[in-house]
Amino acid sequence: MAKILDGKAIAAEIRAEVAGGVAELLERGVRPRLDVVLVGDDTASATYVRMKERDCAEVGIDSRVHRLGAETPQEEIAALVERSNAEAEISGFFIQLPLPEGLDATPLVSAIDPSKDVDGLSPLSAGRLAVGLPSLLPCTPHGVIQLLRRSGVEMEGREAVVVGRSNLVGKPLAQLLLRENATVTVCHSRTRDLTAVTRRAKILVVAAGRREFIGAEHVGEGAVVVDVGIHGKEGGGLVGDVRFEEVEPVASMISPVPGGVGPMTRAMLLYNTLQAARAQAEATVAG
Length: 287
Known about the structure:
six-stranded parallel sheet, alpha/beta
């Protein structure tokens, strides 16, 4: 039986560490603040933002939500991004995605100051990650690395396969695994003989965005399997990109859905906010 990669427990550890860091900053008169730009009335986005507000309150981070109607012009959101970049009290901020139809997220995310890009998704942040410069790391990929590291998974020298090449998860995760000195293969919709490639993996991370796409036939005996996917089930509940019941007997470790990567993503957002606040406080002292 595979060991469960317990994202809930590890995320709780990280939140406790962040709370300690926030307390230290508060003693110095610095209050970390996380702002969210929420456009429209998407139910899932609103729920996620409420969860992030709750997380911030738990660790002592000030949290503000800018709620804008779905009809808000692109230019108005762009102006809010520029004001947020300039406002010293804001440690970091992000735009909740997806945006309503008719709005283009790319130029808006691209305009976020990398020092405040707590989602780690702007082109400048992505470029700094790719060339190995310090940056705020994208939350889900960094959460996967922390989940593996804190679960005692050795990454150096091992063959890691990432299924999915999105800018949100697949590409930055491959970069982070390379930083850990893993040997990395990225698979996608054009990969030939996917099963042969994934079965080689000692660490298999699935971020394909396809419900229960990966089964036991894709997994080598004793592999560590991380499921980044999340999909609603008919009648309630959630499933991932991996057919858990099939894969769990084959794997040595596996992350569940829910309770695996999801809590880690939220924890790393808090971590990034703390890191941004620290860096900005140090820059102010140095200046």
